[in-house]
Amino acid sequence: MEFRNLGHSGLKISEIAYGNWITHGSQVEEDAARACVAAALDAGITTFDTADVYAGTRAEEVLGRALKGVRRESLEIFTKVYWPTGSGPNDRGLSRKHVMESINGSLRRLGTDYVDLYQAHRFDHETPLEETVRAFEDVVRQGKALYVGVSEWRAEEIEAALRIADERGFDRIISNQPQYSMLHRVIEAEVVPLSEREGIGQIVWSPIAQGVLTGKYLPGQAPPAGSRATDDKGGADMVRAWMRDEVLERVRRLRPIADKAGLSMAQLAVAWVLQNPNVSAAIIGASRPEQVHDNVKAAGVKLAPELLAEIDAVLGDAVVRDPALTQSPKPRP
């Protein structure tokens, strides 16, 4: 495993992080989840990402139990706040009330006194940004989080938060967690240039496009039984956008490139996102330990410029690039 600084901060994280978005507490049983976490630790992964909303708060509980007994200082634990965790009007968003109550709930479920990174899971159009920035500052001052970041924020939203932090002398955002893969490159036009200027690192999710870039989904064929595309607990909804024959055919044509590089398709996909110097870590998920062992082999891989150009030529207009696709829910009517 290799390590990178998270943005311009002094925090070093494993360049491959382990995330438990739609697996722990939902798609796989707890014994399998614990086996995947153990595999991640064995592979040298030290960075673990979750969120309060995953599996209705159960994912944090499963991760906390799986990491129990591991030396806390050897880990970087990340979580997030924004999405509803209850039915009340204040059980969502980035108000001071929800932020403060949510960090306490996350710490309790994770079984830790602090998280290394606390992230705003989406931009909140219903709460004054200064209120959110100040609440996150207070979380840091109380020792409940060491650093703060965001997830799926647009460039102008990140810039506005940085301006408030600078004016008030608050801790700055050091990270953004966007979707990023060979097929989904919406951050490249605006978010990455801003982040490079401001010292913000990307912790990217879905580097293998919900499993599509493994090549297991073939054009004209039904998805394999037990795959994410057949998961009725949320997985199928996320992968549906890529399940078009024209996209799957282009992905199929990546296999000779992976073979030439001596990589599996999944390893090629993870290695691809790590070629971007603004990426601090790629988050992988797994339902089986062998998936972890396969994906971590992408750590430290350097892809030649001509191979990257070949990937671009194969994928062509299947790549999604529109920065407007990064958006948070609008205010409720």
Question: Which key phrases capture this entry?
Answer:
333 residues; alpha/beta; TIM Barrel; eight-stranded parallel barrel; two-stranded antiparallel ribbon; 14% strand; globular
Describe the protein.
36% of the residues lie in helices and 14% in strands. It has 333 residues and is an alpha/beta fold. The strands form 2 sheets. An 8-stranded parallel beta barrel has the order 3-4-5-6-7-8-9-10, surrounded by 5 helices. The model has no long low-confidence stretch (mean pLDDT 92).
Can you identify the CATH superfamily?
NADP-dependent oxidoreductase domain
Coarse structural class: alpha/beta
The gross shape turns out to be globular
Q: Rg from C-alpha positions?
A: 19 Å
Mean of all residue-level pLDDT scores: 92
CATH class equals Alpha Beta
**Which second-level CATH architecture applies?**
Alpha-Beta Barrel
Helix content: 25-40%
**Low-pLDDT segments, ≥5 res:** none
Query: What is the makeup of the main sheet?
Result: 8 strands, parallel, barrel
Strand order of the main beta sheet, please? Answer: 3-4-5-6-7-8-9-10
| Fraction of residues in β-strands | 5-15%
H-E order: EEEHEHEHEHEHEHEHHHHEHH
**Number of helices, counting only DSSP H or I runs of 4 residues or more:** 12
Strand runs, count: 10
How many structural domains in the coordinates? Answer: 1
CATH topology group: TIM Barrel
- The rounded distance between the terminal residues' Cα atoms is 48 Å
